[in-house]
Design brief:
By secondary structure, this protein is mainly α. It contains 5 helices and no strands. It has 2 domains: 34 residues, no CATH class; 35 residues.
């Protein structure tokens, strides 16, 4: 990548030599960065997420295990009791 940035090798030669996609080389060289968010959009805000984690850890310390249905019910309860934004 450095040799292509310095101009000592063409981008097409770098593409063939290191088997890096040409568009990736162009984007890197000219500062075009594509931001991709991995995963689904979050349902909980940070405070709610921390509350769920705390709840799970407390139950774990006591020796109780929760199943997926219980976790979903806890998340539903948290999201339904949110204050309205208006």
């Amino acid at each position: 990548m450095d040799t292509a940035e310095k101009g000592t090798i063409s981008l097409r030669k770098a593409n063939r030599h290191w088997n890096i996609p040409l568009t990736l080389l162009f984007d890197h060289l000219y500062g075009k960065i594509r931001s991709r968010k991995v995963g689904p959009v979050g349902v909980l805000i940070t405070k709610e997420d921390q509350a769920v984690v705390f709840w799970v850890l407390v139950l774990q310390d006591v020796g109780l295990l929760i199943n997926l249905q219980q976790l979903k019910m806890k998340v539903a309860k948290l999201t339904q009791t949110r204050p309205t934004p208006f």
